[in-house]
Amino acid sequence: MSVPSPDRFQLRPATSSDLPFWKRLHGLTMRAHVEAIWGWDEAVQDDLVRARFRPEITAIITVAGVDAGGLAREEVDGAILLSVIMLLPDHQRRGIGTALVRGLMAEAAGRGVAVRLSVLRPNPARHFYERLGFITTSHDAIRFEMRWSP
What we know:
By secondary structure, the protein is an alpha+beta fold. The chain has a single domain (10-148), classed as 3-Layer(aba) Sandwich (Aminopeptidase). It is built from four helices and seven strands; from the N terminus they run E-H-H-E-E-E-H-E-H-E-E. It has a seven-stranded mixed sheet, sandwiched between helices. A hairpin with a 2-residue loop joins strand 2 (58-63) and strand 3.
């Protein structure tokens, strides 16, 4: 994936040793949204994060050499699936997420494929994706499924 402004942040491949950071990142960025739907159970969330953390599709976002977030993406059914994008609160609203998603969109456009993602209903990130041109393709009581096509 090509990412604009590599001097502002970098991506490094995740390893299994990043799991503690991934758990903390999940708690800091997703807790309010999860609580609004299911309530927060620390043990359940710990198990879910452990089961879903896949270093082979994950990159850690670093800013000035410090871990600041994470991104997981994979190829599914001829599209790029953005499984996860999370930034620590201090690094949000600084253009990093926009640059990363636009980088995925540029990659997708170059290959003639779509970018898909899912966002929990309480998460205001849905509006962020809409501003970037994603459309809602379906929804239920829990989440919105979204898609961007070149």
